[in-house]
Write a sequence for this structure.
């Protein structure tokens, strides 16, 4: 019978210790995480659906520019702060007659929204377009 008495005492001590640990862990506080200040971003996916190389430059209303060069049939994703932009898209190479194709237009990007921008021309080979 002495074995049972020690077993019971050890069992209850283990239960008490486990309960104390769980209660102690439940009473501790979780440190607060501070949000990082910054501009919310919009996602702009640019798809080159031509056989030409393109340069795309987005200039924000504050004057900051983001530029990207797209190889033929390439896709690039940009994360830009929400707001208004002047975008210039121009061919870099590959146009049959050698003259650049340039287009400038204003766009407005909203935070948390994803935009898809396909680059196409009338000179593109329609049979090889990306679906």
């Amino acid at each position: 019978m002495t074995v049972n008495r020690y077993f019971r005492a050890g069992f209850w001590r283990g239960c008490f210790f486990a309960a104390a640990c769980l209660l102690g862990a439940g009473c501790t506080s979780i440190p607060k995480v501070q949000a990082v200040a910054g501009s919310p971003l919009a996602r702009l996916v640019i798809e080159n659906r031509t056989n030409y190389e393109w340069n795309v430059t987005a200039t924000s209303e504050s004057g900051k520019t983001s530029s990207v060069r797209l190889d033929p049939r390439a896709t690039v994703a940009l994360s830009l702060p929400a707001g208004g932009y002047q975008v210039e898209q121009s061919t870099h190479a590959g146009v049959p007659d050698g003259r650049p194709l340039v287009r400038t237009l204003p766009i407005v990007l909203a935070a948390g929204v994803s935009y898809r921008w396909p680059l196409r021309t009338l000179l593109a080979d329609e049979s090889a377009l990306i679906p």
